[in-house]
Every structure is written in structure tokens, then in C-alpha cells.
Design a protein that fits this description.
With 179 residues, the chain is α+β, with helices and mostly antiparallel strands. The protein has two domains: 15-65, no CATH class; 96-176, Translation Initiation Factor Eif1 (2-Layer Sandwich), CATH 3.30.780.10. Helix content is 44%, strand content 17%. It has helices at 2-9, 40-50, 52-65, 69-90, 122-133, 152-162, and strands at 96-103, 107-113, 137-141, 144-147, 171-176. Strands 3-4-2-1-5 form a five-stranded mixed β-sheet, with helices on one face. Bound molecules: zinc ion (ZN). Residues 24, 26-27, 29, 34, 37, 43 line the site of zinc ion.
Length: 179
Amino acid sequence: MSEENKLKSGPRDNVTYPINVIYCGNCTMPIEYCEYYPEYEKCKQWLEKHLPTEFEKVKIGNSLENPTGEEEKKRQKRGGKGIIKTKKKEEGPKQICVSRAPRGKKKSVTVVTGLSTFDIDLKVAAKFFGQKFACGSSVTGEDEIVIQGDVKDDLFDVIPEKWPEIDEDLIEDLGDQKR
Ligand SMILES: [Zn+2]
């Protein structure tokens, strides 16, 4: 009981109220309202003189609100990046190669290479070919798919249809592989 009274008697323990409200010597308003006072410039001068630290805060706040060249620069950078990206995409040889390879006495398989140069997921592509031609199809190398069947000629229609970014002209017919 006595302890509690001691705590309550001193204003220092209740830090939450008026203490952090600073009144302006020019307009007599709390300083956060100064900017609404017609003579804000005079308030700032008073702040600079009497409360330099508060004045710094006001200055910083102002510059943050100000949409300076910063934003513009960022936007320009982003645009520049975009251009570089599209340029990069055009670089490098992009070509699909298809060929027929003999398997067994009468059978042949179709080998497709170069799909990954178009950022195509080989697993997805192999599955697609398997479903399209109703036959086995698997990824057999870093950028190679083997389709269990002679479907080479069909690929010139099927590939551009599935991936419009691949023009028929970008598919090279390597003919028959001989072993
Ligand atoms: Zn003021």
C-alpha cells in the first residue's frame, strides 16, 4: 500500500503523458502541428534555434515525403534491366534437332535435341510426346529426348503447335542416324 503510494505520488513514474509533447515557441502549438500554421517558416526558425534535434527530425521528414529523383532513377533502372533481359534471350544458338535412329530390325526411334535451349522442361516435353504419339518417350541426355517410334516428320507440326515460340524453321532434320 505504502509502496504503491510512493510510485503514484511522483509524476516521473507516469512517463506516458504530456512529457513528450513539445510546444512550439512561435505558434504555441505542439510542434507536430506547426506545419499547419501559416507561419511555419518562422516555427522552423524557432525550432532550429531552440530545439535543434527536433528541427532535424522535421527536416528529415520533409525530405522523405518529397518525391525526389530517387523514384525516377529506380524506374529507369528497372526499364534498363528489362531491355537487357530481352536482348539476352535472343542470344545463343537456339535450335531443335530431330533425327531417326534405328532400334532393332525394323523399328526406329526419334531423337530430339535442343529443347532446353528454349527453356523447355525436358521431363514435361518427354511426357507430352509420349501422350501425343502414344508411345514411350524419355529424357536420355542433358538435352536429349528419345521417342520410341518414327515420329520425326510429325514433330515439325507438333513442336510449333505445343510451343509457339519454336518456329518450324528452327527445327533441323538431321535425317537418319546410322550405326
Ligand atoms: Zn510552431
